[in-house]
Design brief:
The protein is built from 7 helices and 9 strands, in the order ααββαβββββββαααα. By secondary structure, the chain is an alpha/beta fold.
Amino acid sequence: MHKSKRKYFQEKNPELNESTLDYLADFYDIWIQSGVDIRFTFSNHPENPSEVVQFTIFGHHEIENPKILTFIQQIPHFFPNLTNIHIVYDFLSELPISYQKLHRLDALIIGGDRFSKLSDFIFTAFPKLETFILNRSSLCNIPNDICRLKKLTYLEIQDLPNLFFLPNSIGKLLHLEELRLIDNNILRLPDTLVQCSSLRKIYLTQREDILYFPPKIKDKLHLLTSDINRWKVYESLRQEEKFTTILQKLMVNPEYILSYKETRILMNSKTPNQRNLLEQYGNHPQIQHILIKTLDDFIVNNADSKIIL
């Protein structure tokens, strides 16, 4: 199995050395076992079509896996030419310092339930950064140094419940074209926003208690509705993602033993898409056997539990 995974990455990029191939093959298993979505995107450039240019890791789960944190820290060593990074991982508190070597980075998406610090080097090490998205964090302020991202054209700050204000220095982002402030608790927008000469659109979650925004930006302001329905949609998407991840585990490893929680997620499938997926994966004899066996074990071991089919 390990050899087949190495072969997959080697075919993608024949120039990968042995240690990098082992690295990718080993962490492929971590992706399957932990339910974390890890992806690599290769360049389509004719001069180097097999170069890894984008790294994505996305996961919501309750158990910390130290190997994933090690994996995240080592990424720049193996892929120094990354231009796009998307890391939303619940157990990451800040972007590791090893990432300051990625001078070609032009898009950065970071966040997670424990993400609590914007590393200083973010504002100095990425001179080409054009897109910056901060998604889910306990941060309570955005540093004034954000103005040092001179080429920034797109800034999105989403789901920071402790964020109430933006720094005045944001007005120095002269190339900023779009600003999105979604599901935060921002009370006012700084007057300096009018100095962002390239700014075309500002998306802001509509709130009854927002106190102030500069009159001169009113024509650029787009208010978005935030209510219980949007939250329900978000939760539905998260459940759909978990459901699909479990089925992927079973497809890759028919001997995988479902946990109690995973079993309940499969049993409580409600949407038409989930039912269709169950039927699709269930046609595979080994998967069908595992699902039936797990269901029988679940019923036997939890006879007093209320099972919702």
